[in-house]
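To: structure desk
From: M.T.
Subject: fold request, one chain
Message: Could you run this one when you get a chance? Sequence is below, nothing fancy, just the single chain.
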Amino acid sequence: MPLILAFVIGGYEDPVSRFQAMTALSLVFASLVLFLGITGLGRRFVIWLPDTLKAGIILGASIAALKRVFVDDAERFLLEQPIATGLACAICLIFTFSIPMQKLKERSRFFFMLGALGLLPGFLAAAIVGPLVGEVNFDIQWGILVPPLGEALAKVSPLAIGWPSQEMILQSIPLALIAYIILFGDLVTGNEVLRDGLKVRKDEHVDINLNRTHFSLSIRNAIMGIVAPFFPTQGAVWTGVHVIVVQRWKQGPKAMNSLHSGLASYYLMGLPFIFFLLPLLTGLKPLLGVALSLTLVLTGFACAYIAMSIPRDNASRGTVVLIGAALAFFEPWMGLLIGVVATLALVGWDRSPDPIPHDE
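Reply: Done. C-alpha cells follow.
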C-alpha cells in the first residue's frame, strides 16, 4: 500500500487523475498476471523456486508483519490499546496454536466449541475489557446501512471519470512488476499453509492450481479497475484468516468437513452482515486497531512456523533468516535479489521433489 499511495498521491494532483492512475495500474497488473497464467510461467516460477528461498519469502512476511505491529505502527495502534490488543492476541494465539489447548479441546466440548469460533473470543475479550480500562469507547448506532454505490462509482469508475492516458499506463508498468513480486510472496505463503494442512487432511482432495489463481487474480483486478479501483486490496492473501480456517480444517472432518465450506462460511456468513448492519459496523469501529494487530500477529506466528519447518539443515535455516530479514527491511526487489544470491552461495538451488500436491 505505501508504494501504491506514493505513486498515486505523489504523482498526481487531483482525485480524478489519481483514480485514473489506479485504474491504469490495475489493468496493467491484470494483463501481466493474465499473461503469466496463460503461458504457465507464473506456475512454473513458483514450482521452480528452491525451498530455501520459498521459506525465506515466508519468513520475510512474518518479520514484516510483526515489525509493523511492534515498531512501525506501534504508536498508532498497540500503544493506544495495549491491554485490549495484548489480550485479544494472547487468546487467539492460544486457541489457534497452543499444543496444551489442543489437548484440552479434545477432552472438553466447551473449549472445543470456543476454539471453533475463530477470532471471535479474542474480539469479545477486547470488547469487554477495553472499555473497563479506558482503551475502547463505543458509539453504537442502530439501523441498516445502504452503501452509496452510485455516488462512489460516479467518483472513481473510469466509465464515469474517463480512462487513463497512455502516459499513465506506461508509468504504471514498473510498479506493476514490483506488485507481482509482492504478490508472489503471498502465493508462496498461501500454498505452503495449504500444503501443511494437506499433510494431516489426506481425506480431502484440494486442487492447488497456480494457473487458475493467476486467472482469478487477473479477472478480479480488471473488474475492480473498471468499477472501483483500489489496487492494494486486489490479490493480497488475508493470511490471518487463511491460517485460522486451515488450522481448524486440520483438526479433522468433525471440526470442518471441507476446506471449501469453511472458507465459504467465513466470508459469506460473516462479512455481509458487517457491511449492512449499522450496529455491527459502529460497534467494531473502535476495535479496528485491535483487529489489524491481531491479524498481523497471527500472520507473523503462522508464517514463522511454516517457514522454519521447510529447511532441512543448519545452512538452510541460517539462510532463511537472512533472506527473511532482507525482505522485511529492504525494498522487495532488493530483498529478493539478496535472497537469490544467498541461496545460491550458501545452499544451492534446493528444489523440492514434490513442490505442490495435485499440481504436477
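Reply (cont.): The mean pLDDT is 84. Let me know if you need anything else for the meeting.
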